[in-house]
Design goal:
The protein is α/β, with parallel strands linked by helices. 25% of the residues lie in helices and 22% in strands. The protein starts with a helix and ends in a 12-residue tail after the last helix. The protein binds iron/sulfur cluster (2 copies).
């Protein structure tokens, strides 16, 4: 069943359109924040928390905020907020009427204050450094994932305004990249992009995995050094918009769910910190415990055995819930499919994983034995 998904939607079939259902899970019974070593905690057990209240700061400056309101319970390294469903929220004094009015120093300050960096991407340092180029890669870089697509559709003007602001304030040559399969985004951008002369809009071909930042920089912007390029995805851009415009962190996130039907997917809007098992039960309502579950990229074939113990974070992008695979060979049958498909031309079965591997997952995807060939060190 996994292999039946193939690479049809984005890669081989220009006409194919998926039937995508939009769902919401915005009122979880609780949300959770994991406490890591070195975190500074700003809440106490039993304290009432408002939406947008600062909960903790990690050693790398990344901050975590309450996304629901209610009472905090701290035990076993987890801060759990029990949702009182009153949606009581902090209102920031920092909100601005027009993005155009915001100065460079204010953008840096608000992004630092809200700890806007995520996934170890040092956005604020790039603002302060020698960046010359801003590349907004608004594509969903994994197959069968549509979160950026819908975030962009839902906030198109705000996001274009934010690119314009960053380009002007930081003197950056700004590029917006989409691929032609980004549903309505391409047409919507084309219709208004002439109002944004600061933004170079490019449609990039989508041949997995060639739309990753690393490959884009090499193929299209080779005249720039890596330290001169600030890459932002749609979510990072939206976080910056929200911080600068409203003076607040973003509480919501989109996650794509696919049940193995190549023609159908769900894009679910939910809250950071919500439990993934609850998310599935309260939206699509299927029994995922009897299925094979993969997170983010079904091609890498890294199974998720404990969906019910995970929460929504920036690292969770999609959930693939497939019927269990049967009749799988128990070891390598030397079919050669993995080497045939490898886009960088290495042998994925070699004793040591070649340093050229870009961990695209295609070798795992085609392997009939279901081997995970890329979990090894390079
Ligand atoms: S070895 Fe596998 S994961 Fe690495 S580049 Fe080749 S196909 Fe992709
Ligand atoms: S695809 Fe899997 S079974 Fe085939 S050669 Fe590669 S590792 Fe072995």
């Amino acid at each position: 069943m996994v292999l039946e998904l193939k690479l049809t939607y984005k890669f081989n079939n220009d006409e194919k359109k998926l039937d995508i259902e939009r769902l919401e899970f915005l009122e979880p019974e609780s949300t959770e924040v994991y406490i890591r070593e070195g975190d500074t905690i700003y809440v106490n057990d039993g304290e009432y928390l408002y939406i947008n209240q600062l909960i903790k700061e990690a050693t790398n400056g990344i901050k975590t905020y309450a996304t629901i309101s209610g009472t905090a319970k701290i035990e076993n390294g987890v801060i759990k907020i029990m949702n009182d469903k009153s949606e009581s929220s902090f209102v920031s004094a920092e909100a601005v009427d027009k993005l155009d009015d915001v100065k460079k120093e204010e953008i840096i300050k608000i992004c630092e204050t809200l700890g806007i960096d995520y996934e170890s991407k040092p956005i604020v340092n790039k603002f302060k450094g020698n960046s010359k180029l801003l590349i907004v890669n608004a594509m969903d870089v994994e197959p069968y994932q549509f979160n950026s697509n819908y975030l962009f559709q839902d906030n198109i003007r705000d996001l274009l305004d934010t690119i314009k602001l960053l380009s002007r304030r930081f003197n950056l040559n700004a590029h917006l990249l989409l691929n032609k399969y980004d549903d309505n985004n391409v047409d919507s951008v084309k219709a208004i992009i002439n109002e944004y002369p600061d933004i170079n809009f490019q449609i990039i071909k989508d041949v997995y995995p060639f739309n990753t930042n690393q490959v884009i920089a090499k193929e299209h912007f080779y005249e720039y050094k890596p330290e001169e390029i600030l890459f932002l995805d749609a979510f990072a851009l939206y976080k910056i918009f929200y911080a600068v415009k409203n003076g607040l962190p973003v509480a919501e996130r989109y996650i794509t769910v696919n049940l193995g039907d190549p023609n159908r997917a769900y894009v679910i809007k939910t809250k950071y910190g919500a439990n993934l098992g609850d998310l599935i039960k309260n939206t699509i309502n299927i029994d995922y415990e009897e299925k094979d579950v993969y997170l983010n990229n079904f091609m890498r074939k890294v199974k998720c055995e404990n969906l019910g113990s995970l929460i929504v974070t920036d690292n969770i992008k999609s959930i693939f819930i497939f019927p269990k695979e049967e009749n799988i060979p128990s070891k390598c049958i030397k079919c050669g499919k993995c080497a045939d498909i490898c886009p960088v031309g290495i042998n994925p079965t070699a004793k040591k994983l070649d340093s050229a591997c870009i961990r695209c997952g295609l070798c795992n995807f085609v392997c009939p034995a279901g081997l995970n060939l890329i979990s090894r060190e390079k």
